[in-house]
Design brief:
Largest sheet: 5 strands, antiparallel
Oligomer: single chain
Number of domains: 1
Shape: globular
CATH architecture: 2-Layer Sandwich
Mean pLDDT: 79
CATH topology: Arylsulfatase, C-terminal domain
Structural class: alpha+beta
Distance between the termini: 25 Å
Number of helices: 2
Low-confidence stretches: none
Number of strands: 5
């Protein structure tokens, strides 16, 4: 799924329905959203990642940590909100689980 702002590409959203089976599954499938500079993903077990692709193209430094700075937290919240918006637009059935996770369990504490 590609989101556009006018003619300019802003986000690409990817949904992985069969991203492994986990006993600790919080929701079905994994989701990822990216822009030219940023990538955020969340897996069925609740593992998240935030990468600055311009500074870390190999995605070696996950910025989602307990010590993340305010700028990274803000970027993560922006990506999560855009992902939820896409999920609502496409009628994704996992919306309640993702909203609960983002609000209560995510390292970015979306509220």
């Amino acid at each position: 799924m590609v989101r556009r702002n006018g003619s300019r590409l802003t986000y690409t959203v990817v949904e992985y329905e069969n991203w492994g089976v986990s006993e600790n599954r919080k929701f079905h499938g994994a989701r990822a959203i990216r822009s030219e500079e940023w990538k955020y993903f969340i897996r069925p077990n609740g593992r998240e990642g935030l990468y600055n692709l311009k500074e870390d193209a190999g995605e070696l430094n996950n910025l989602l940590t307990d010590e993340m700075d305010d700028a990274d937290r803000s970027q993560c919240l922006k990506m999560q909100k855009a992902l939820l918006e896409w999920m609502h637009e496409t009628g994704d059935l996992s919306i309640p689980e993702f909203e609960t996770f983002f609000k209560n369990e995510s390292k970015s504490a979306l509220v």
